[in-house]
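Peptide deformylase
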Amino acid sequence: MALPNHRAPFAEQVEQLLAIEGPLPIVAAGDPVLRRPTERYDGQLDPALLARFVEALRMTMHAAPGVGVAAPQVGVSLRIAVIEDPAPVPEEVRLLRGRVPQPFRVLVNPSYEGVGERRAAFFEGCLSVPGYQAVVARHAEVRLTGEDEHGHAVDEVFSGWPARIVQHETDHLDGVLYLDRAELRSLSSNQAMAEYWAQPAPDGAAGALGFTLPE
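Structure:
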């Protein structure tokens, strides 16, 4: 299916997408919509249409499966994203990565800033860059500000893996892909990840592939 006409009003774009039954198609890297800063959400969708769009994003995230989807990833350049992570991981991974369950959240007009100087580096991937993962050093803790889908203000601190998810999805809304922040020497196919780098931390990959992790 063709992407929505980006020159059409956002409500028309979203209605076109929602005519699809099932999950929405994910836009792949190389499409300009992933590189355009999004437009601040300011009521371009009426409440009922916004609720339907949010539910479609949630369905798409679950079907992928992923832990977040931003509106540009389905071709809509609005500052909206959804996140959710049941975190079905072993205890060792939970402790090392701080990967704890993150309930379903809608992020509207989000922005973040790092809290403190500590950074954490782990492999991450993206639904818009299928088949690959790379190590990204990100803020270990961030302060997120913005709104929820009901227009209520959000001002919250995230740490561990939820902080990584928040940064990844908010970056999408600024036209930034995770590869822009990645250590490119770490870039690995999913097959290579399964064969070589299934460990909870990327230390082995850093030594073998020749890149440096933050201290």
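The CA atoms of residues 38 and 62 lie 23 Å apart.
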